[in-house]
């Protein structure tokens, strides 16, 4: 006889167990004496009971029900259900999907080859998705094939070896499966982003490893209303170049006026167009007039004040969003910030000209979401968008490919609304 219990019984309990079985079944002692050996064992997953039970003893229905309820409560499904769809058509970075009936606007979807996209057009019979990346993969040298051409000239045969590469083929094909992720497009946030260069989705592109943060935030959230907002009454920062200036010409003070300037390090800017905390400022100019230089100088000039204090509420963190610029230009800006030790309080969000249009459109929203973390944690942050005209161009490209009605100069009607939401 084998006895298995939740805890291993003592060796002296074998005789007591035999006597218990004999009394239960009404057997004489000579029947079991010398004929039964007890092997003890332990099984922790068994239900523990203080009294041993014989095989013929029935368990009460209530106890059996309780055991089953405990087993069912601790059961976890090994498989997860996913809502799948199919690619109906694809081209120019836009995919039309069928089958994702529960997809949300702005939700992240994943294609069969691992690429991701964002659902924008929710129509009755299909879903329009912008693909984050290039939906085309160019042929490599191994995909080329050799053709020998033969020509006859002056009774001589000439052989010529020609290497022909096939046409560009697509990485996202019609009929591929696509699944929902169940989450709206979001980016990582937190102090771990300081000193890093990330793309529009928050993925590091500086080769310094993963970002040490677990917090995430949606890229598009409703801005605070008018009532919760404070008036612009405090300078962006205080420094040796700053001077308090009354914006009211009559000398009266009002909560609606900016009563202090911000220190950008440029005296003409601080004197003529002072920047207060919570204020938006446009840098308008023609090409190659120094708009980016003004923004980069303002970032570098925060180093002296940030190094002079240990109070996080007095520091000013910077986020530089590069939209539609060349990779070499972004690399030069990052190099300039590193040489002047300004990257320790700066985050660079880069969506270069070689990136897909959806990433260029999404980059300013990602930078804004990263900056709002500092606002929500009692700190200050300045965000520089360089520049929003390229974001509008990318949004126009996306809208035309999604068959949205165009407006003036083929820009969609919602273009100004996008800029307004960023300013808020």
TrEMBL record:
Compartment annotation: Mitochondrion inner membrane
* ATPase F1/V1/A1 complex alpha/beta subunit N-terminal domain location: 81-136
The superkingdom of the source organism is Eukaryota
Record flagged with keyword Ion transport: yes
Family, according to the entry, reads as follows:
Belongs to the ATPase alpha/beta chains family.
Q: Which Pfam families match?
A: ATP-synt_ab, ATP-synt_ab_N
Q: What is this protein called?
A: ATP synthase subunit alpha, mitochondrial
Q: Name one GO cellular component term.
A: mitochondrial inner membrane
What the entry lists under InterPro entries is as follows: ATP_synth_asu-like_sf, ATP_synth_F1_a_nt-bd_dom, ATP_synth_F1_asu, ATPase_F1/V1/A1_a/bsu_N, ATPase_F1/V1/A1_a/bsu_N_sf, ATPase_F1/V1/A1_a/bsu_nucl-bd, P-loop_NTPase
Q: Where is the ATPase F1/V1/A1 complex alpha/beta subunit nucleotide-binding domain?
A: 265-420
CDD domains found in the cross-reference section: ATP-synt_F1_alpha_N, F1-ATPase_alpha_CD
Q: Which organism is it from?
A: Cystoisospora suis
Q: Name one GO molecular function term.
A: ADP binding
Lineage of origin: Eukaryota, Sar, Alveolata, Apicomplexa, Conoidasida
